[in-house]
Fold this protein.
Amino acid sequence: MSEPQKIELACPVPIGQYEKIVMAHGGGGRLMQQLIDQVMLKEFDNSVASEKNDSAVVMANNARLAFTTDSYVVNPLFFPGGDIGKMAVCGTLNDLAMSGARPLYLSCGFIIEEGFAIESLQTIVQSMSQQAKAAGVEIVTGDTKVVEKGKGDGIYINTSGIGCLETPLQISPSMIQQGDVVIINGDIGRHGIAIMAARENFKLEQPLESDCADVSGLVKLLLDAGLEIHCMRDLTRGGLVTALVEISATANKHIMLQEAALAVPDTVRSVCELLGLDPCYVANEGRFISVLPAEQAEQALAVMHAHPLGKGAAIIGTVEAANNGLVTMKNKIGTTRILELLSGSQLPRIC
Amino acid sequence: MSEPQKIELACPVPIGQYEKIVMAHGGGGRLMQQLIDQVMLKEFDNSVASEKNDSAVVMANNARLAFTTDSYVVNPLFFPGGDIGKMAVCGTLNDLAMSGARPLYLSCGFIIEEGFAIESLQTIVQSMSQQAKAAGVEIVTGDTKVVEKGKGDGIYINTSGIGCLETPLQISPSMIQQGDVVIINGDIGRHGIAIMAARENFKLEQPLESDCADVSGLVKLLLDAGLEIHCMRDLTRGGLVTALVEISATANKHIMLQEAALAVPDTVRSVCELLGLDPCYVANEGRFISVLPAEQAEQALAVMHAHPLGKGAAIIGTVEAANNGLVTMKNKIGTTRILELLSGSQLPRIC
């Protein structure tokens, strides 16, 4: 079989052809990549930022640290399976964990809209606190701003985090190798569809909860088991495919996914079919992939299956021989297609 | 002369009596303190957060680090003397410097409103980059979110920062001692009044620029000179008095200010008189106080006067004998008054 070739159907649009920010610039897809590359990274030209990992790995006083930031603008603020506070803590813990770091400290910055209910703020802060305590991290510094009614949307939260890198492994896209397997810790699409259903007041036959969770404890078990993890990535904005496309492009490797290995909850599948969405691009908040040598796959799966957040773990793909920077998916009848970044997102403001 | 006594004219209102967030909750004054104490710190109960320093001092991998975060919602985004990008970098560098840390790394989180001009974003990002490069720090990690038109106000920026503490000094409010002097690096009120004039389209007789600047280089000179600095604080939201009231209350010391020693630019004074504002509560973005032993004051002033951001440095107060947690001001005719936190802020969204 001939190797798949990437055909550029459309030239990437230079950011200069957009005069104004559109929603898709925040969607996690191609337009966001262009904005980051052509506006942010063009100015912030340093080697750490250019790696575009979930966390930056930096040295401070001879300590190897991970440092990350995320702002959360999810709508609605409360949804089945979580709220913006739980997400803001879990998301940043997960970003630290994806670099192999043990999370230590978080900051929180609140931008609150005038008129926001203090009771809701209390609930959100309690969620943050519970989630941080469960992970053994401290929220050590913060900031609160208030903006006029109509200049926000209830509350936006930024969390930044510091973790320490105790593993000697260098975990990043460029480390993936031919013969590696791609393992996911569960099914896909719950968060994005749960958020959309809550936002649009869909009546789902079966209730669906977001998978929002802190996976740093599970990652610690994988590292403690001595597994030689080459790369990890959580599957948030843009979902599974966006994460893999970024990894394959950075590593210039070919990642082949097996469609049959992907678990998609029935409700997620039904809603996606109804609305023409692809669950492979739907955001998750408690799912991540790890890429590691095939000979360690069995051990990795055993560690995952023993943890509540890894019960659905499965091998979903492999790193192939070709250096083509592509992600392909082999479907159930054996044909293969190339997966690419979406232009924007299927669903805005899911995180 | 009898010692000044604090008279509680009004009971502090428990946060529970407010059902909704009001603008004053973000103003830097008493209401914000109550929100932080009764909602945030009540949950995030750890010793580091409770210190309420500009930066948290934490240990990571045996390294002593400073960690801080701030969200910037200033309106307008561009103003004489700076823009939101310059502020977002300078403000976080200053917060790190106030703990005695040398700034190393910054993160940036953008929340951009749909329809925002990409050219403006480019200008803001360039400001951030220039300011970071001038300080020798790297912006190593970031995040971009886009919200619908009417759910933001152009752009909000969060910057978090990490610095390393190389000084053996412990710099915090609790370290101030009787006999210390309070030194400021320049005049007060420029930032707040420049922002208000720009926002309201005031025609000022003499143009006024914000004092927005990165003072971390000046702080480094003070530390390198071996000065035994007990406490530093930048004079942002709530201005000079708010910073000093927080310090005196934490340390339970009496700080006495000399009104005659405070430099207030003519334009700031005129606008304040016209509008009934007190320049001692107006925000600055490039001014800080340092508290250190009186016998080192001369040396500290010499270091400051030799630096562009310290030309106007002056001794403005002293730490007195009484353990009463008060700030008082002696005016030009010798009478003394107690200075307290405002309820909210005189000017919203100045940072």
Notes: Confidence is low (pLDDT under 50) at residues 6-11 of chain A. The radius of gyration of chain A is 20 Å. Chain A touches chain B through 84 residues (CB under 8 Å). The domain at 57-93+103-165 of chain A is CATH 3.30.1330.10 (60s Ribosomal Protein L30; Chain: A;).
